[in-house]
Amino acid sequence: MTALCKDVCLLIAKIVDTYSSFTASHSLKVGQISRTLAAYMNLPEMECKKIEIAGYLHDIGKVNIPLNILEKQGELSSEERLQVQEHSYMSSKILRNFSELGEIINWASNHHEKMDGSGYPLHLEKEHLTLADRIISIADIFTALTEDRPYRKGMAWQEALQIMEADVINGALDSDVFLVLRHHAETLHAIILQTLAP
Q1: Which of 11, 62, 96, 172 is deepest in the core (most CB within 10 A)?
Q2: Which of 194, 187, 134 is nearest to 164 (CA)?
Q3: Active-site residue numbers?
């Protein structure tokens, strides 16, 4: 994975993040949290870099969601919620035009899949989800819960862990990745609070 490729993917992430205040810096943070989790799990350096890039690209499909839905302050209707959930599929559709990304395409597209099959868009179960998929999913959830959004303040990292632990107990999230997250949660939360400049 060349430095140029990483820079291009970072640029794409910044474009996605500036599309809406709702996503402001979210992709950059997910990329950094994903890479840091992967490093804590002692994955090879090249795999950590690829996981970081997948984190940068995971929400690229959100550019297809109308801003009035993406930035809606109140509760989404069922139809609007379905439109938002389509972004994972659209991320996959967009990224498949760049076959040189290889496995990064699936890693980025599977961030809303759950190990018990309750996720979306493909309802994949644990045997079809790689460790990279599981890392990016947990990074995305932890980032989303603890960062500020237009309609709410980010929650404390301790509260986010409690919410996520319920999904681990229910079999939706990977327990091994969660244990690493929990052990390093304060450090990872500090990354989320920073203005990132990878």
Answers
A1: 62
A2: 134
A3: 62
The predicted pLDDT at position 196 comes to 44
Inter-residue contact 190 to 2 (CB < 8 Å):
no
Segment 89-111 shows an average pLDDT of 90
Fill in the amino acid letter for 105.
I
Structure tokens belonging to residue 38: 């992967």
pLDDT in tens, 109-141: 999 999 999 999 999 999 999 999 999 999 999
Dist. CA 177–CA 134, nearest whole Å: 7
∠ CA 167-169-172, rounded to 5°: 40
Instruction: Write out 3-65 in H/E/C secondary structure.
Output: HHHHHHHHHHHHHHHHHCHHHCCHHHHHHHHHHHHHHHCCCCHHHHHHHHHHHHHCCHHHHHC
HSE-up (13 A, CA, CB side) for residue 86: 13
Q: Is 125 helix (H, G, I), strand (E, B) or coil?
A: strand
> In the numeric block, which tokens belong to residue 180?
């690493």
Q: Which two tokens stand for residue 146?
A: 């603890």
- For residues 35 and 38, what is the distance between their CA atoms, to the nearest angstrom? 5
Given a contact cutoff of 8 angstroms between Cβ atoms, the answer to whether 157 and 189 are in contact is: yes
Residue with tokens 């809303």: 112
Closest CA to 138 of 106, 169, 87, 179: 179
